[in-house]
Design goal:
By secondary structure, the chain is an all-beta fold. Helix content is about 0%, strand content about 50%. It contains no helices and eleven strands. The protein has strands spanning about 5, 10-15, 20-25, 30-40, 45-50, 60, 70-75, 80-85, 90-100, 115, 120-125. Strands 2, 4, 5, 6, 9, 10 and 11 form a seven-stranded mixed β-sheet that branches. Strand 4 (about 30-40) and strand 5 form a beta hairpin. It is globular.
Length: about 130
Amino acid sequence: QVQLVESGGGLAQAGGSLRLSCAASGRTFSSLAMGWFRQAPGKEREFVAAISRIGGSTYYADSVKGRFTISRDNAKNTLYLQINSLKPEDTAVYYCAARITYYSSAYYSGPAEYNYWGQGTQVTVSS
């Protein structure tokens, strides 16, 4: 069983930055492909970014490309999401997700492709 705990959310002003973290436990972190998703009130959960288990491959939703950076530190069992140039439309609960994979360069963008989810961290951006 994999446990995921997000942190780093909060209230920020438009144009500012936040860094979200996701601490993983229960399995060797380097065996997990990871992703970030978000869900705004009244909307479906949407893909934000994904990273392969070794970290060599990343993939972003078009809406966040150039502003968000996903990264991981396998020595610290932690996933990160750096969010720059925050916009009010970035307001959502952000979730990290994990999937066990044997493929070193694989990443996944569909919610159904992930087996484990964190509880989420709220990001609120004021204009």
